[in-house]
Amino acid sequence: MEVKEKKIEVVAENKPLKDYERARRTWTIGKFTTLNVSKYDSNPFEINGYTWRLLLFPKGNGVEYLSVYLGVPDSDSLPERWTRTAKYSIELINQMDSTKTIKKEIIHQFSSQESYCGFTSFFPLNKLHERNSGYLVNGGCEIEVEIHVIHASPVSSDKPSDSSVPDDRSVGNSVDLDVVESIYSNAKSFLMSVSKESTSVVTDATCVMHSTKDNCARLAKERFNEMISLPLDDFVNPEHETLMVETLSKLGDHLNLFSDEQAKEIMKLKAVFPTSIQEWRDSVQVKVSCQRFLSTFEKTKNLLEGSVKTEEGIKTKLEQLKIREQELKAQLEALQNDSQRLVKERLEVSKQTQKIHALAEEQAGKVKGKEIEIAGAENKLEDLKSIWASIKSLFTEA
Question: Which residue has the higher pLDDT, 282 or 190?
């Protein structure tokens, strides 16, 4: 299987040594769906002077997940006690939607005891083979790896690496200060990288060993010690659950590494762990569902309280208007009564007015005659006054 280069990014980071460069390779497997093998290797490829190989388990390494590892294929030919620390990422490319590309990253120190390391539970096989998932296109898939070598011990027995410390014979006035500065920069950068980044970025990384079953058991025990200290919430990730199941399965064959009491608990945990995790998930789901319901109820209750408060305000105003309406009705009734009373009074007065009017009209017809009579009477009175005055004068003069 050919490992072809898709993109290479070399980042020198102001360091003169090749140990601080990184590059990327893409492994295209054109007939992935037709592979009928338990594991599948890429051809060895070189990045910055270091040889690597990808190891793939198309049907999963004992799990229902795609398993992918990065390894050092020429580890047997390297010097004794060689080590190589690298930060690397492995990506399963989604060829239809790049935002759905699966990427996992880890820092690992490769050695003759642990020459392969990667991810046993990289991606669920059922999701990988889903129709139109984008991970398999025309039966092929793409796996991309980016490697950043942080530190390496000598890569060969006859030629020390640039980062090797020179022996006592090379230390003296003849030592090139540039080499010394490079060694110093290399060591300082390594310490900074180690202090900033843990040696295990992802907890589901699995190392494939070149050693004995004892070493495998030891690693399983170390992994168990790490995972047993995790809170139960961390096992919501199915990959973590799968890793714990695998670890317990391995430890079941190496109970001699534990005390009798611990061994019993491990066997109990092995038997009940999947069920316990499922019960925990179910309980969490119930809790979350109930909390969500209570949160929704609280919002509904607040809305109801606001609605009731608004309605109470409207109700109060309505009652005030009803009281005002009753007051106005009482006033209207009083006005209506007064109006009816005045109507009756007017009717009575109108009757009197009608009679008086008729009488006035009747009397008006006699006014002229009476005026003539008055004028006649006044003339007669004047005549009588004159006569009286004449008679009076006859008697008063004497």
Answer: 282
Tokens describing residue 130: 């889903």
Phi-psi region of 279 (alpha: psi -120 to 50; beta: other; left: phi over 0): alpha
Structure tokens at 62: 């004992």
Q: Is the pLDDT of residue 332 over 70?
A: yes
Task: Indicate whether 248 pLDDT > 90.
Answer: no
Burial of 82 (0-12, 13-18, 19+ CB in 10 A): buried
The answer to whether the CB of 240 falls within 8 A of the CB of 147 is no
The tokens of 393 are what? 């004068």
pLDDT at 188: 52
Region 284-289: mean pLDDT is 77
* 18 neighbors 150 (Cβ within 8 angstroms): no
For residues 321 and 316, what is the distance between their CA atoms, to the nearest angstrom? Answer: 9
| Element (DSSP H or E) covering residue 313 | helix 260-364
Stronger pLDDT, 32 or 182, i.e. the higher one: 32
Place of tokens 């200060």: 177
The DSSP result for 74-119, as a single string, is TGGGSPTT-EEEEEEEEEE--SS-GGG-EEEEEEEEEESS--EEEE
- Tell me how crowded residue 129 is: count the other CB atoms within 10 A of its CB: 13
On the CB side of 384, CA atoms within 13 Å amount to 6
Report pLDDT for 116.
92
Element (H, E) at 52: strand 50-57
How long is the chain?
398
- pTM greater than 0.70 (yes/no): no
> What whole-number distance in Å separates Cα of residue 96 and Cα of residue 90?
18
| Spacing of C-alpha 80 from chain mean position | 50
pLDDT at 219: 77
Closest by Cα among 203, 73, 85, 58 to 143: 58
Q: Which residues contact 33 (CB under 8 A, 6 or more apart)?
A: 129, 136, 139, 140
The answer to whether residues 257 and 251 touch, using CB atoms and an 8 Å cutoff, is yes
Placement of tokens 């969500």 in the chain: 292
Is 161:179 a contact under the CB 8 Å cutoff? Answer: no
